[in-house]
Amino acid sequence: MQVSPEPVPQSAHEVKTARPGPALSIIIPCYNERGNIEPLFNGVARAVTRYDWELIFVDDSSPDGTIDEVWRLAQMDSRVRGILRVGRRGLSSAVIEGILSSSAPVVAVMDGDLQHDETLLEQMADAITRNGYDVAIGSRHVEGGDNSGLANSWRLFLSNAGIRLAQFCLPVRVKDPMSGFFAARRDLFVQSVSDLSGTGFKILLDMLMVQKTSPKVIELPFVFRTRNVGESKMDRKVLFQFAHMIVHHMLRKNSRVSRQPSS
């Protein structure tokens, strides 16, 4: 005769008290950054103590096993998540996927190469949650910031030339629109997704260029560190993608203007 299982006490079915999600999601696009993953995690854990946070690493199938290191850390700490992208490459599109996987009201973006100063993350989050800014930029070009960590004079020249061109196209005055280190209201970013080009390495510039009204932006100084592990991804392809993004947005802008009825 089949014996029915013992009834499970009602208390075992009770749902445990829900835990709120993170207030800050930090998106880190990465490629061949295995040696930087744990030091970056440790740096964020030391620096960000006033916000519940999560690290979302978005890896473009790095051959050095970056995602394996991310998953190892995720098994030790639930604040770490890894997204493995197969057959897709690109920093901007990686950032987009990372942000869309998050539900935090504030999202931050930083590189996985340890050149961005994680101690600035709380100030960025404060600027948005407490002071009403839409975007907080880690800036190398305001008082107290420094750009000397760029790999060489060629990269420095390209960065400065790109900044001058970008400033000409933006709806809001920003001294460092080429920064890859910033935080933003998640809803502002999500509302912009359909208009983003999603190409190249300059997702901040991409986001700022598509805003129909000028967002409230603050720039916070930081010192751009020297890379210790891995190598710079600046090459001719990146320059082409940057030019393509600028042209893409200028053509869209001109198209919108031409469709407006004349008075």
Describe, in plain words, how this protein is organized in 3D.
With 263 residues, the chain is α/β, with parallel strands linked by helices. The protein has one domain: Spore Coat Polysaccharide Biosynthesis Protein SpsA, Chain A (Alpha-Beta Complex). It contains 9 helices and 7 strands. It has helices at 10-13, 34-47, 66-76, 91-100, 121-129, 153-169, 186-192, 203-209, 236-259, and strands at residues 24-30, 53-59, 80-84, 106-109, 135-139, 182-185, 217-221. The chain has a 7-stranded mixed beta sheet, with helices on both faces. It is globular and about 45 Å long. Mean pLDDT is 83; it is low at 230-235. It holds the Pfam family Glycos_transf_2. Its EC number is 2.4.1.54. It comes from Komagataeibacter saccharivorans.
The helix/strand series, from N terminus to C terminus, equals HEHEHEHEHEHEHHEH
Radius of gyration: 21 Å
How many helices in DSSP terms? 9
User: Which segments are poorly predicted (pLDDT under 50) over 5 or more consecutive residues?
Assistant: 230-235
